[in-house]
Amino acid sequence: MKLHALAAFVGLALVSGLAHADKLDDIRKAGVLRVAAFDANPPFGFVDEKTHKIIGLDVDYALELGKKLGVKVELVPTNPANRVPLLTSGKVDVVFANFTITEERAKVIDFSIPYFASGQQFLAKKGTLKSADQLKDWRIGADKGTTMETTLREKYPTAKVISYDDTPFALTALRNGNVQAITQDGAKLVPLLAALPDKEKYEIPPFAISEELEGAGIPKGEARLTATINDWLRELEKNGTAQKIYDKWFGPQSKSPLPRLFKIGDAHIRDK
Amino acid sequence: MLGLAAAGESPGDGEDGMNFQIIVDNLPYLLWGAFPEGPLGGAALTLVLSVVSSVAAGALGLLLGIALALATGNVHRLLVLVLGFFRAIPVLMLIFWTYFLLPVALGIDVPGLLSVACALSLIGGAYLAHAVYAGIAGIRRAQWDAGLALGLSRVQVLRYIILPQSLRMMLPSFINQWVSLIKDSSLAYIVGVPELSFVAAQVNSRLMIYPAEIFLFVGAIYFVICSALDVLASLVSRRLA
């Protein structure tokens, strides 16, 4: 019964998708690009203390795209789990939210080429986590609705994966000893570690269990919009804007310096 | 500020004991969000959302409760069924459905704030309808008969004899429902409505290491709002008595 209802919804979604006019034209006509971005995920998308506006690496990409299309950008705050539903229900036009490209997600939405990449890593008490092998009998905290959660369950089915609503809760669980490690994009763990008052007690062990390539999420079947975004992303790399955005958040002068091992157009993260 | 800064405590020193300076730093955002540059949020939005939904839930509850008391046969059964539906589904589900599934299923785009207000009003209204119905049923049959014998219509009996007595008895049920509604407004986070709990999560994610301080403060605000309602209600009921 439930499955039938779901199938009917998905069917309707597909039909309405086909019946719609071209998304790119819709955006230009409306003069507004509706973008889902994280509001609680520094440095990708978070609320600025002073201006109370959402800022971050993903937001910079969204604003650049708005500039390119000549339209205003309207940011819709999202959590990890709402990214796909926001696109399929037509609430937003694009998702810029540290969105890992997966086959599973690509069944219901489309992705641009990746503009960011990092590996799934761990944060644990110093000296405790020495190899990925140990994970199979550890208690590990992850963020709900992320690929971190699913990858961990798939690769280490015997590990106890505890899903938290957001990163601060997972971090608190780690600091209180409820979990032995938490897992995240390496690019998120570095600033996280830097923010800890007792950071000398923790470390990010130097191994990753997966490569996360992150792209813009686009409604299914919008070929023109996807092509436009892909061309624009390559252009950002060529004219140096991509590097500038990266340096703003991860450059040597930033709070969490991280070498840039992936450029737009690359197929994989380069070895150091 | 608050003596904490004077004592040399700065954000980041939070290892021993709590650091409430971060609440002071983020107080405007927690209380009214990005307003006035951006939309209203925080505790102020929780208050607005609660007042609007409480009034709507109260009106709906009163209307449906009276309908339940007056209706007979199939109409009564249908009402019980509809009310049963809204009492049986979690608030979170109803918010999620109206926000994400209505646009897909019927092409109706419901903004987040509206979907939350509707869900809270409908579900709160369904609960209150039963309270109102019970309140009306609690008045003895003889009073109806007496009213009708005086030549009043059924509506007049209800308006002048039954409701004035039963509403006073229902007040505690209304307060209960409203208090629960205020707290349920925190479920708006699922669709990104920036009420108190949602902005608290945003601040929490930026600071990362002060969840205890932030959510203690949030709990205190809910306590103040709900207690204020309680005090207000006892003042009102004293005047009514």
UniProtKB/TrEMBL annotation, chain A:
Biological process (GO), any one: amino acid transport
Highest taxon in the source lineage: Bacteria
InterPro entries documented for this protein: Bact_solute-bind_prot3, Solute-binding_3/MltF_N
Signal sequence coordinates: 1-21
Keyword list, A-Z: Signal, Transport
Boundaries of every Solute-binding protein family 3/N-terminal domain copy: 32-253
SUPFAM superfamilies: Periplasmic binding protein-like II
Transmembrane segments: none
Pfam family, one: SBP_bac_3
Family: Belongs to the bacterial solute-binding protein 3 family.
Name of protein: Transporter substrate-binding domain-containing protein
Organism, scientific name: Rhodocyclus tenuis
Top-level taxonomy: Bacteria, Pseudomonadati, Pseudomonadota, Betaproteobacteria, Rhodocyclales
